[in-house]
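FORM 7B: Structural annotation worksheet

SECTION A. Query
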Amino acid sequence: MTAKIGVVSSMITQAAPARRKEFIVYAAGPAEDKLDRETETDVRPLLFLIAFAAAAAFAADRPNLNGTWQLSSHHEARLKFETLLIEQTPDGVKISESGTKEKTVDIACGVDGHECKLKEGEISLWYNGPALVMMEMHHNRDVVTKTRLVLSEDGNALNLEVIHVSPPGSSSTYTFKKQL
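SECTION B. Predicted structure
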């Protein structure tokens, strides 16, 4: 039996030859350094172009709401303001509401959806397509109002839609005209 085992083991050894792995390492020389610099130089304008196009596309999604807006429509439900002054920045919006017997309200908040403190509550602002959305929360979130500001196609009118989220209620749309 021992002889048979020896023959089998020699057959296994011959059937599976050892494999060697070889790696070739080339030294980097001045020619390859030059090629890397050329590739880097050619990529930079492309990256700049992509970044510029992305910024332009991002800015194009945001309507230009800057300016003074005067209430032009009248409804049974009254607003607490008749004039809006809107100033947009790349990362936020400042809104002043005035024009009635009530005190002027100034709102300044980022447009990333994070909550900002108000005198009597909180507000969040963000863009949803062509609309600037404001979510106001008062009395520990018992009163929640969603307001959408949508610019008309010609840019001379601003539709302000007020939706009562909590407690649920009817919605109203007001139209403001841009003052020159």
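SECTION C. Observations
Residues 1-13 have pLDDT under 50 and may be disordered. Residues 67-179 form a domain with the Lipocalin fold (CATH 2.40.128.20).

SECTION D. Sign-off
Analyst initials: ____
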